[in-house]
Amino acid sequence: MSDQRRLATEVSRFSVLLHERGWVANHDGNVSARTSGGFLITPTAVSKRLCAPDTIVRCDAAGSPVTRGGRPPSEVALHVGVYEARSDVQAVLHAHPPYASAFALAGRPLPPVSMPEVFVSLGEHIPMMARVLPKDPSARAHAAQAVAHADVALMAGNGVLTVGPDLETAYLRLELLEHYCRILAIVQGGVGAPEPLSDAERAHLLDLRVKAGLHRGPVVPPVARAAQADLRQVVAEEVRRALGEAK
Ligand SMILES: [Zn+2]
């Protein structure tokens, strides 16, 4: 078996593992491993459960596919950013494990790590990567920044990013981060409310949903929250006036 084939088999094995652990759903998450001149990555629009070695996409260092077949995921920029920033990194995982992702969705950075094993393995500070939406080109720079001084990061409004000298290490780091966040949620009595999407973010996501042919019903652009509040006040005043006149 060639080195490339062996690595594709490993990428697919960890992809299935992410699914089995319940850390991804639908087509979420991506797994990659560095090769000479680029990396191998799980394809877009395929469940991690079904990522067999033949489906794995070979990309150049900029994240463009170099072979025909599957396409890289829209989050490929995360992987490009990490490999550019950290020459020691050989594998990158992105997933949505529920507890760690809950903290990411709440957008509240984790307090300094207080559990000895986690402190030693992951470091005292687990960064929160800035919020980026699918296909946002700034994902590359934000991912590079997030792993500059850490091997794991929460991604605000999204999930987690973990890196390592091999897939097994990146996987164990993800497992530990999720386990720690689960314990933290118990100690804290919860995680908190999610940060809502802005109007611009909702408009961008609605556009992606429409383009993917998934949207049902009319396309109503998100109304600015301030405008919605004003509208509610106007309606309330009108109702009060009408009721007053009706007396
Ligand atoms: Zn994600």
Description:
With 247 residues, this protein is of the alpha+beta class. It has helices at residues 3-20, 76-85, 98-106, 116-122, 139-146, 167-188, 199-211, 225-246; strands spanning 30-35, 38-41, 57-60, 91-95, 128-129, 152-155, 160-164. It has a seven-stranded mixed sheet with strand order 3-2-1-4-7-6-5, with helices on both faces. Helix 2 crosses helix 5 (139-146) and helix 3 (98-106) crosses helix 6. It is globular. The protein starts with a helix and ends with a helix. The mean pLDDT is 90.
Which key features would you list for this structure?
globular, alpha+beta, binds zinc ion, L-fuculose-1-phosphate Aldolase, 44% helix, 247 residues, 2 domains
Largest sheet: 7 strands, mixed
Q: In CATH terms, what is the fold-level topology of the largest domain?
A: L-fuculose-1-phosphate Aldolase
State which percent range the strand residues make up.
Answer: 5-15%
The CATH homologous superfamily of the largest domain corresponds to: Class II aldolase/adducin N-terminal domain
Task: State the CATH class of the largest domain.
Answer: Alpha Beta
